[in-house]
Amino acid sequence: MLITPEYVFQDVTHITPEWLAAKGIRALVLDIDNTLTADRSQELPEEVAQWLAEMRNAGIGLTIVSNGAEKRVRPFAEKLGLAYLYRSAKPLPFALMVARRRMGVRRREMAMVGDQLYADRMAAALYGIPGLMVIPRGPDLGAQVILKRKWEKRHWQEYYDRGGKTL
């Protein structure tokens, strides 16, 4: 269960404040690449900008936690007005601890949103919070991620085999 998804959403925009409230979630830790935008892009899709505004209006805390370098993460996060942590070393959960303290929530009130099972899902599981997985927004540009995607297929299939649905 460290890698197999708990929840799978078609897109980050399918996660609603109502769904989060029903689960007692008041804060989200967000991945960037293939979660909020395409891999390595600095452009935010309009529907994701609207979703972020909806989350803020609902009082949901938001922090970016990315394995990317500062030169990738900082300009993107600052453009959005979001707190951020870069080179977070996911799946290690240390950056999630820092993000939780900064947002001032209990662990049970926080979830990780991302697209990679071996980074985002595993970090959430190791920290003991829900992992809200999304279908990647575009193709992967890094060789390491492309390789991990091959290994992930089995775990995605386990989710669907046990009756999991894409929300």
Evaluate the radius of gyration: 14 Å
CATH topology: Rossmann fold
- Kindly state the percentage of residues in helix: 40-55%
How would you spell out the order of helices and strands?
EHEHEHEHEHEH
Which structural category fits the helices and strands? alpha/beta
Report the biggest beta sheet as strand number plus sense, adding barrel if it closes.
6 strands, parallel
Give the total of beta strands: 6
Q: How far apart lie the N and C ends?
A: 19 Å
Q: Looking at the structure, what is the overall shape? A: globular
The CATH class is: Alpha Beta
Architecture in CATH?
Answer: 3-Layer(aba) Sandwich
Organism: Faecalibacterium hattorii
Pfam families: Hydrolase
GO molecular function, one term: phosphatidylglycerophosphatase activity
Protein name: YqeG family HAD IIIA-type phosphatase
List keywords for this structure.
single chain; 167 residues; alpha/beta; Rossmann fold; 6-stranded parallel β-sheet; 41% helix; globular
Task: Tell me what you see in this structure.
The chain has 167 residues and is α/β, with parallel strands linked by helices. It has one domain: 3-Layer(aba) Sandwich (Rossmann fold). Helices cover 41% and strands 14% of the residues. The protein is built from 6 helices and 6 strands. Strands 1-6-5-2-3-4 form a 6-stranded parallel sheet, with helices on both faces. Helix 5 links the parallel strand 5 and strand 6. The longest helix is centred in the C-terminal third of the chain and has 19 residues. It is globular and about 35 Å long. It starts with 6 loop residues before the first strand and ends in a 6-residue tail after the last helix. The model has no long low-confidence stretch (mean pLDDT 94). GO terms for molecular function: phosphatidylglycerophosphatase activity. This is YqeG family HAD IIIA-type phosphatase. It holds the Pfam family Hydrolase. InterPro entries: HAD-like_sf, HAD-SF_hydro_IIIA, HAD_sf, PGPP1/Gep4.
